[in-house]
Amino acid sequence: MEKADKVIWGIIGAGDVCEIKSAPAMYSIPNSEVKWVMRRNADKASDFAKRHGIAHWTTNLDEVLTDDEINAIYIATPPNTHAELTIRAAKAGKAVYVEKPMANTYEECTAMMDACQMANVPLFVAYYRRTLPGFIKVKDLIDSGKIGEIRLVTIEMYQPLQPGIIANTENNWRVFPEIAGGGYFHDLASHQLDYLDFLFGPIIESKGITFNQAHAYPAEDIVTAAFKFENGVLGSGMWCFTIDAISEEDTIRIIGSKGELTFNCFGSPMSIRLESSLTGNEEYSFIHSQPIQRPLIQLVVDELRGVGSSPATGVSGMRTSWVMDRITGRNS
Fold this sequence. Notes:
It is built from ten helices and 14 strands. By secondary structure, the protein is α/β, with parallel strands linked by helices.
């Protein structure tokens, strides 16, 4: 794909994530513009375009894909549509930036990646924690050796039936496997597992146990997992989405030979605690402002213009989906 002087976006799907976290960055970053927004509901498409100052709206995907000025497509629909829409965008010669999780299964991710490679267009996935200052700080602390050689990592996430940390939607599609691939685990743990991939490299072994304890919705509501990174670091995780509010937890703990780091992946502020036998204890706090995807979208724009690169790609996104499939038993 030829490098662009300016990135001109077509947005497919424009719900709450697009409203706050992403679209405002796409039209406020220099050399980046949103020309089209497409939704199946005409009134909602028109309203979104009007409020965000977007010139064109439609309910017809082909109007966006056949516009020669559009060189990048942002897919912000539920995960069950990601594969089909990515493949169609790639065949139209457009770069693709797709919401996470990348798709419902690793098999779908492979089809997406194959289509983009065949069309010679880049594929990016919206795992934006790879670019946020607080998460970059954690990586810097690890890379500087303040906790020594990394031994293990643990994830604990316990949330009530209606987690306050997920984006609002018109209907709770996240707990229907046919739409979301699974339950809240797929929506939330994907961020955590992808970020650990950013820190330590690929996970090469993973397995898990899932169950639906509360029977409040069709998807699994409790997941436990064990995994191994290519570099030998071991990890484990426990996710439960049916607890009382007094038991809420959102903690990632990384233990090294000389200390440990503890931090939250969601919520604000992001709090980081370092305990080190080398340097003593330190604490850091970060508030990541909206639109929270701006740092990643800036790097996507930079790459499409030939002046930088994005750390969140289709290749890395595929790895996270592979891990989740292994944990949930969808990929044995």
